[in-house]
Structure formats: structure tokens, C-alpha cells
Description:
Belongs to the class-II pyridoxal-phosphate-dependent aminotransferase family. Histidinol-phosphate aminotransferase subfamily. This protein has 363 residues and is α/β, with parallel strands linked by helices. The model has no long low-confidence stretch (mean pLDDT 95). The radius of gyration is 20 Å and the shape is globular. Strands 2-8-7-6-5-3-4 form a 7-stranded mixed β-sheet, sandwiched between helices. A 4-stranded mixed β-sheet has the order 1-10-11-9. It binds pyridoxal-5'-phosphate (PLP).
Amino acid sequence: MQPRDLSAHVEYVPGRGVEEVARDLGLDPEELVKLSSNENPHGASPAAVDAVRDAAADVSVYPKAAHTDLTAELAEKWGLSTDQVWVGPGADGAIDYLSRAMLDPDDPVLVPDPGFSYYGMSARYHHGDVRSYALSKADQFAMTADTVLDVYDGERVVFVTSPHNPTGATMAREEIEALLAGVDEETLVVVDEAYGEFAEEPSAAALLDGYDNLAVLRTFSKAYGLAGLRIGYALVPEAWADAYAKVSTPFAASEAALRAAIAALDDEAHVEKSVESAAWAREYVHEHLDAPTFDSEANFVLCEVGDGSAVAEAAQGQGVIVRDCSSFGLPGCIRVSCGTEDETRRAVETLNDVLADLEAPEA
Ligand SMILES: *Cc1c(COP(=O)(O)O)cnc(C)c1O
């Protein structure tokens, strides 16, 4: 027998892992600089690491109180009711919960192109029909209400990403409001703020009071440095009170992840340091890379290098892993995550060598 027809489904293409690349190159993983997955180069808050260690003693028990505790802390942080906080295994898990809550078979979903592939993947798992709106490179990938509304045709769910992955651009608050006002009442606008901590733009979460067709996604994977634990959440309309219990996978967020997230929330200094360090690295790449870059408010920079796959491969040969953006439909670009100062300097130096080599006429 076979699974159902998966021919329209696509695979998630992750940035390559350090161990994998080190093995290929015959190098020590310690010698590699991995700037391909937008992870926090400073790791997690030490308090979160301690919380994981402490949680180890209780792993035989299903997580319950920790889930309630994290939900309560997040509700307080955002000034919402606990019913409005949907904790899941990563923001990806929360996207699945939104798909389960929203989609009937064949319901259309509108996603950005280029954009984060999991929106479409999740919609397809849930028998949705995926359409896209284009962000234009010529226009610095600008995101306005009209960018979306020009192609919007009554879709059930519309995704926007701010700051956007892989472009780094933000969507202004007024534009998000114009989008919320411009779609049908029965269309949910999901604003994915996976990189929200790194941006000046305030969170769209403040709009949840005024609009009941908005959901906001946040994660502990990026600024909080907990990508390996898989913990994130959606903030949802007040009217959805009893939906979470009906769509969430029981105990999908682990005790260790929940406890680490609670500890990470309390360590504001670690988040601040991570945000400042990313801002420094962004500037450094903008100023010193010998290739055009796009303005970013996230912890990565999109760079136009001509042949993204050739540049990424050559850099990898020298121990610097960056993300080739072909899988995003941007074959001319690479995405460079913000590293520590040392990592960022080394990455830029390596990329500049690679760019010079690739440009040099063949001997
Ligand atoms: C990283 C990322 C996420 C999800 O992260 P999780 O690790 O699942 O929390 C969501 N959206 C975008 C745009 C991302 O880049």
C-alpha cells in the first residue's frame, strides 16, 4: 500500500547541520561557522539550560503544570487572556494548530513568495489549497497591504511574516491594519513574528484587542536560543476560547521545553544581548560584504551574490556554512545569519574571498 497522494507536497529544506558538513569535509565541527539557520550564536540563557537539567529528573511524568505556568506568563506578557495563548512544539507546531482550527478541505491559503515553506506544507497536510502572493526584489521585497490585497481572493488564511524570512523586511503596523481591514471577516490574517524581538516595529499582538481575524506567531527558537527544544506559540482571537483543547496534540510541548521557556522569559538581559549582537552583525555584513545586501530587521541578512548555490558551496569548503536561497526561489541570493563578532567577521572575509575568486576570469 501507499500513503495518500503526496505529489503536490514539498519537503522542508533545512540549513545544513554542522556535524553533517564536518563529516563531508573531514573537519572538526568546532572549526566550522554555521550561519545558515538563524540560530542564536550565544546559545540559550544559562537559566534555561539549568531548567532543562532540572527537568531531567521528572521526565517520566506528562507535562501539565509547566504548560499552565508558561501560558499564564505569556498571557501576562502580552496582556491577553490565557485562552488566547496557544503553546505548541515550535511556532511550526502552532501553525499546525491554526491549520487544524481553520481549514476545511480545499480551503485556500495565501502565502508569501519567497517565504517560509512551512505555511504551505501545513496547509497541504490539512487538505488546504495553497496560493501565493509575490514579493518583488526590484521593490526591496516591500510588504504593504496592497502587496497582498492585489492578489487576495477571499482565502481562508493569509500569512505575512514580519520581519520576513528570508528578506529581513518588516511590514509596518498601518499596513497590517489596512490588510486586516481589507480582507473578509472570515479570513484569518496570521502575522508570523518569529524574528519579532530583533525588530523596531512593535508587535501586531497589540491589535488583537481591535480585530478578531488576527493571529500572531512567536517562537523561543530565535532570540531566546531554544531552537533545539521546539517551543513556540500563537496568540489568537478572544472568541476562540475552547478551540485549543480540540486541536492541540496532547502534551506536544515537553516539560523541559516549557520549563526552559519560562526561565528564558525571565532572563531579559540574555535576549537584549542577543538582539544587540544581531544588530551589530547586520550592520557589519551590510558594510563589509562585497555584494549588495537587503535591509534587515531580523538576525540574518539576505545578500545578492550572483550564484547563491556556487557561493554557498565554496564558502562551505572553507568552513563557513550559509544558506543558499534557491529553495526560496532566489537562486541569486544567500542568507547569512548573524553570528558572534568573530564568526561574522570570518564569514564576511570568507565570502569576500569566494566572491573575488568566482568573479576572477578563468585562467
Ligand atoms: C524559524 C521560523 C519559524 C519557526 O520556528 P520554530 O522553531 O518552529 O518555532 C516560523 N516562522 C519563520 C518565518 C521562521 O523563520
